[in-house]
Write a structure and sequence with these properties.
The structure is a single chain. The chain has about 150 residues and is an alpha/beta fold. Helix 1 runs parallel beside helix 2, helix 2 packs across helix 6 and helix 3 packs parallel to helix 4. It has one domain: Rossmann fold (3-Layer(aba) Sandwich). A five-stranded parallel beta sheet has the order 2-1-3-4-5, with helices on both faces. The longest helix is centred in the N-terminal third of the chain and has 19 residues. It is built from six helices and five strands, in the order H-E-H-E-H-E-H-E-H-E-H. Strand 4, helix 5 and strand 5 form a beta-alpha-beta unit. It starts with a helix and ends with a helix.
């Protein structure tokens, strides 16, 4: 029930923010996904709301997303940044698989990761460019990345 309440709150915030948004130019495209096998997306949704608040164009692929779908979206959207989320230890291998596929198919794309089961050390081990323990860390990274691109 708390997940449903959070989802409703996110929709209300998004509606409010879209009404407040004037004619701001989008700063860059970011693909977000919760990795294959993981249905927990509250953290990803918080990151999405914050990124949109900072005027990034977010392509949200949802939860339990196949690695190939992430790579395809990055190619189609020409996104420079992907955010991957995992809450369950059993799904983290799919995060690594997704990162390897992205390196093969879209080598210029950067990957940020987050989730309760991740650490900086593990994120480095699976090839992520950036790890954050909180949503604002992802926003700061996106700001830095798009300021230099």
């Amino acid at each position: 029930m708390s997940s449903l309440a959070a989802k409703c709150a996110f929709e209300a915030i998004k509606l409010y923010m879209s009404k407040q948004e004037a004619t701001h130019e989008k700063r860059g495209k970011i693909v977000l996904a919760t990795v294959k096998g993981d249905i927990h997306d509250i953290g990803k949704n918080i990151v999405k709301i914050l990124l949109e608040n900072y005027n990034f164009q977010v392509i949200d692929l949802g939860k339990s997303v196949e690695p190939a779908l992430v790579a395809e979206a990055v190619q189609n959207e020409q996104a420079l940044l992907v955010g991957l989320s995992a809450l369950m230890t059993t799904t983290v291998p799919y995060m690594e698989e997704t990162i390897h596929l992205l390196r093969e198919k879209t080598p210029c794309c950067r990957v940020m990761v987050g989730g309760a089961v991740l650490t900086q050390e593990y994120a480095a081990k699976i090839g992520a460019d950036f790890y954050s323990k909180d949503a604002m860390g992802g926003v700061r990274y996106a700001n830095e990345l798009f300021a230099t691109s």
